[in-house]
Amino acid sequence: MKISLDVINQMDKQPMVDKLGWIFEHSPWIIEQAWEARPFPSSEQLMRQCRQIVERSELSRQLELICAHPDLGARLKMTEASVQEQQGAGLDQLTPEEYEAFQSCNQEYKDKFGIPFIIAVRGHDRQSILSNLRKRIDGDKEDERQVALAEIFKIAQLRMEDLIEGESLV
After folding, report:
1. Catalytic residue among 51, 69, 126, 159
2. Each residue of 74-85: pLDDT tens digit?
3. 153 CB contacts (<8 Å, ≥6 apart)?
4. From CA 55, how far away is CA 34, in angstroms rounded?
5. Catalytic-residue membership of 69
6. Do residues 27 and 34 lie in contact, with contact meaning Cβ atoms separated by under 8 Å?
7. What is the model's pTM?
8. Rounded to the nearest 5°, which phi and psi values hold at 4?
9. How far apart are CA 155 and CA 121, in angstroms?
10. Phi, psi of 40 (to 5 degrees)
11. Phi-psi category of residue 41: left, alpha or beta, with phi > 0 → left and psi -120 to 50 → alpha
């Protein structure tokens, strides 16, 4: 069920964190800090504030955010949002061969970069995700950290668009 930006702007901190904290995978601290900047005239401004919080945070905090994301195609416990997003990309229907390819590539990526491979899966299918994963394995560590953050922002933006309706009257 969607919620209006005006309602969000009027929320106390904990209710806002409870309602929006899941947008950034297992990282409600971002919304907790964003609360201080209310009211937001638009959901874009709220997203911009969240992005600035992440970008200004320490490297260790950014890595915590990145590492909070599950491996794509894994059959592990995930947040409901991640489960739905991966289902939408067909990652819940991997053949045994595809599953093995994802596991192998995910492990190679993690071994090289120390973080999970992250991509906003909406608009992708399992073949395009695996293709992107294979290409990005050849990347640079710092570039991949930046790409991972950019993908996290895309994921959060899509989740926010699913949750928030309208602009603020403020």
Report:
1. 69
2. 655 557 776 677
3. 47, 51, 54
4. 13
5. yes
6. no
7. 0.90
8. -80, 150
9. 8
10. -100, 125
11. alpha
Side chain identity at 51, as an amino acid letter?
R
- Count H helices, E strands: the chain? 9, 2
From the CA atom positions of the chain, what is the Rg in Å? 17
Structure tokens of 57?
A: 């945070």
> What are the pLDDT digits (tens) for 104-146?
999 999 999 999 999 999 999 999 999 999 999 999 999 999 9
Instruction: State which amino acid sits at residue 70.
Output: P
pLDDT digit string, tens, across residues 7-62: 999 999 999 999 999 999 999 999 999 999 999 999 999 999 999 999 999 999 99
Pair of tokens at residue 112: 């090289």
Between helix 141-163 and helix 59-67 the angle, nearest 10°, is 60
